[in-house]
Amino acid sequence: MRYLMTTKPTDTAPDERLYAEMGRFIEELTAAGVLLATGGLEPGGILVTSSGDEITVTDGPFTEAKEAVAGFALIEVRSQEEAIELARRFRRIVGDGQSVVQQVFGP
């Protein structure tokens, strides 16, 4: 089962301890074949909207910075419980904030 874990930005600046712990976490998940992709996202983005035959393209940002998605990890695990446990481990490393875990359907 694949899950997309996203996280929102925080006001806390990362320090060397955070980089070291996150590096170990990413290495562990990569070695186990669980982590498929990870990355940060630009705060703006482009909105593409369709209504009938009309398609509109609008440059972002669209939400307050604290509501935007700042980063993601795509994982492949055996169960939702395993995905939640990995999200818990991530939150323990990065501290206060929010992450969302969503199952990804399809091949």
Automatic annotation (TrEMBL):
Residues 1-90 form the YCII-related domain. InterPro entries: Dimeric_a/b-barrel (IPR011008), YCII (IPR005545). Transmembrane segments: none annotated. SUPFAM superfamilies: Dimeric alpha+beta barrel (SSF54909). Coiled coil: none annotated. Belongs to the YciI family. This is YciI family protein. It comes from Streptomyces tanashiensis.
